[in-house]
Design a protein that fits this description.
The chain is elongated. The protein is an alpha+beta fold and 362 residues long. The chain has a six-stranded antiparallel β-sheet, with no helix packed on it. The protein has a five-stranded mixed β-sheet with strand order 1-3-4-5-6, with no helix packed on it. A four-stranded antiparallel β-sheet has the order 2-9-8-7, with no helix packed on it. The protein contains seven helices and 19 strands.
Length: 362
């Protein structure tokens, strides 16, 4: 009989995938993936977990999931112990022929019982990822994007510049993602990107995006993307006033779009969330430009002091939000398929006001 474990391993190796990568992408711990390939049921907390993980793993490898589950169930039936009483003690005494039909009846009852038990749990097995009874986990965040399926009670630990840590606790994973912070409870809906002020200083400290959550089963957890702002762990330097140009010095045939006007200039935050593939380059203040390729679900954040220049290969794939003076401003710049270069920066006007503007460059 074909082995479901060998089938999984062969499909993975044909796709040239390693278990660490798959663990990150399907949110199943590596030890459970190894348990499936080795057909080691002892590493799983229960049968429902094994079957649920097996369904998710086979779907990921694009196998015939029902066939893989059938192989697992057949193996399970074969390894089931024979009920006590079915063993016949052979002796020289006359053999009671009624034992044969009784044994057959008992076997049929045992097989039917297993099949009914499996069928009743099918709904749970199809979607189970981790039960709420499993050990709560802690994750320490850094400057890289954090992508993980988390569960109620899990904790996110954020380092600060004084070597202390801020601890955030997952409160809710049913319908919407809820998280406890020192400044209060925040909720984020499915496919929503939310700015969160962790320490109550009216400045956004991190961006949370929810890519998957169940409306009926909180034990499935929530898959989230988290990106920390740099300002949480180190001080923000002041705006360099001498580097802010006057409006008359701006050379562009395109009209300026004013985001904000104030009596002073100060650091602002720009967030970009990507709806599709995009080649993206940025230059913050006087730093060197940085280029990268972003995919759907990726996010970018920066906190310029004076300004930022952006190069974008396809504007339709990016949504921009500016946060300044504790206010958020959505930017609607460019059209689908457009390749463009934009400056977002402070300028001085003739009336002494400072303006945060968007300038399209040729």
């Amino acid at each position: 009989m074909e082995s479901y474990g060998e089938l999984l391993k062969k499909a993975r190796e044909e796709k040239n995938l390693d278990l660490d990568r798959i663990s990150r992408e399907v949110s199943i711990e590596k030890r459970f993936l190894e348990g499936l390939e080795n057909e080691d049921s002892g590493v799983f907390p229960g049968e429902a977990y094994l079957a649920g993980f097996l369904r998710n793993y086979s779907n990921y490898l694009e196998l015939d999931t029902e066939y893989v589950l059938k192989l697992y169930k057949n193996k399970q039936i074969q390894e089931s112990s024979v009920p006590e009483g079915l063993y016949v003690n052979h002796s020289k005494k006359s053999f009671p022929f009624f034992i044969i039909p009784v044994a057959l009846v008992v076997i049929v009852i045992a097989v039917v019982g297993i099949l009914l038990f499996t069928r009743n749990k099918k709904e749970v097995e199809s979607n189970v990822v981790v039960s709420s009874g499993m050990q709560k986990r802690q994750y320490e965040l850094d400057d890289t994007k954090f992508i993980q399926r988390v569960y109620k009670g899990d904790q996110l630990m954020i380092p600060t510049e004084n070597n202390g840590k801020i601890i955030l606790t997952v409160r809710d994973t049913l319908s919407s993602f809820g998280i406890d912070t020192p400044s209060g409870v925040y909720y984020v809906e499915l496919s929503e990107e939310s700015e969160i002020d962790i320490n109550g200083d009216n400045v956004s400290d991190m961006i949370v995006y929810v890519s998957d959550i169940s409306s009926t089963d909180e034990t499935r957890g929530a898959e989230i993307n988290v990106l920390l702002r740099h300002g949480l762990s180190r001080e923000v330097t002041a705006v360099v006033d001498d580097e802010i140009p006057f409006a008359s010095e701006i050379k562009s045939k395109h009209p300026q779009k004013v985001i904000l006007e104030d009596n002073r200039a100060y650091p602002f935050t720009i967030n970009a969330s990507f709806r599709g593939p995009c080649l993206f380059r940025d230059k913050v203040d006087n730093a060197d430009s940085v280029e990268g390729y972003f995919n759907r679900g990726d996010v970018f954040t920066a906190t310029p002091h004076n300004g930022i220049r952006l190069w974008i290969s396809n504007n339709n794939t990016v949504k921009f939000t500016i946060i300044a003076d504790s206010k958020s401003f959505d930017l609607d710049i460019g059209v689908a398929g457009q390749v463009f270069v934009e400056d977002i920066k402070w300028i001085k006007d003739t009336d002494g006001k400072y303006k945060l503007v968007v300038i399209e460059l040729d």
